[in-house]
Amino acid sequence: KSDVIFSNLNGPMNADIDTESRTAYFPCSQEIVVCNLQQNKIERRISNPLFNDLHSVNLNRNTGSLLVVSSGADKIVELDALDHVLWQWDAARFAEEHGLTGTPYSETVV
Question: Which whole-number Å values give the CA distances from 46 to 26, 62, 96, 107, 108, in the listed order?
């Protein structure tokens, strides 16, 4: 039965599974797919304008927040249990603020 869920999710993923609630969090291209493994169904999909080419998602089991790596946006985003952004880290802004705007070969990257 789990093939129903997993056949709809393509590519390698860095998912997180909460074994207590039997819930899995799968990062897809533009959204996180939340699956109930006990009922073998997709519970919901989480999308956000900051999501682009998601790399991984990790559940903070103490707070219920999700830490999401958005590779396409060069950001790390934390969402609370209601999917609101708690904070975000922007790689491009960090690079600019710390003078990391070029490569050793003088190529501009930011």
Answer: 10, 20, 30, 37, 34
